Known about the structure:
The complex is a heterodimer of chains A (about 280) and B (about 80). Chain A is about 10% helix and about 15% strand. Chain A has helices at about 235-245, 265-275; strands at about 15, 25-30, 40, 45-50, 65, 85-90, 110, 130-135, 155, 180, 190, 200-205, 210, 225, 250-255, 280.
Amino acid sequence: MPNISLTNPSNITELRFNSISTQKLGGVIQSLDAFTNLEEFFFIDHELTGSIPDISSNTVFRELHCQRNQLTGNIPDLSSNTVLEKFNCFTNNLTGSIPDISSNTVLEKFNCYENQLTGNIPVISSNTDLIFFLCYDNNLTGSIPDLSSNTALERFNCSVNSLTGNIPTINSNTALERFKCHDNNLTGDIPDLSNNTNLIEFHCFNNNLTGYAGGSVSPTLLSFLAFNNNLSISAVNSILAAFVAAGASGGTLNLGVNALPIGQGIIDKATLISRGWSVTTA
Amino acid sequence: MAIQKITDVDNIETTQEQWWIIYNDETKTVLEGPLQCSGYTSSPHIMVIGNTEEELLTYIEENDLIIPNDDEDEL
């Protein structure tokens, strides 16, 4: 494989290496230091190895897309990349922790799912433009951070990690469409979802959740999977009642391997089934 | 045990050892699973129960079913 070098790299604002199934590029990205005006870098679905290069001198960098390669090592320091909008490095072999992204105040997408990242999810309260935060299928620990400032957030997925603690309040996240935190070690209550009027999916199965904070659910919420927790009778009954009150048809609600619904809960389950819902309870 | 395909999903009991899916036969979309979860399920859709996740993944492939993943972002 020949080395790729470019003359006048400082004039280049965008680098795209398109992937063709039979012609994937391999090797290591040596350095992007000379590309001082580089704004966008696309190297998707190749066979890159080595680590993501240092991009601290690329201060006008807006988008990095290196998904589906074989990258290893840590995510570099991003504190100089203050205009960074999209950071996509999913489906690689990255290790180490997620760096501090508090300087990346215009960040819209941070997608590093399907890696081997460890450590805590960083504080994201200054990332108020964040729309997607997808870090599922890693080895992350600690708790889910405060999301109350992330009012633009549409998708949050930190499932299949080793997270502990409570699911934070998501009352402020009114743009939220999909929230997934399944397959962790989370405890406490399923939060109040009454303000999440755009929510479509809420998946919190395979945790140790015990309660439901109550409140209504949006009729847009058509996939609610909370099986394999320790939800109480009261929580199970309240969830069934909330979905009946929402009045939607044709959704999927799984509350299996929790307490059995009783009384009105059994009636509510039957009501949902009559509205075309798929319902599982213990 | 072979795969069980159930078209009248009315209070079907599953054990913690079994794997299952629910799919919409019109859209060929998997709505739930493959998952392991004991309980009683009712649904207007089709339920398929097997012993292993692999059995169900094979069923999904052979029947051209789609497992949607809305959290696969691209750009």
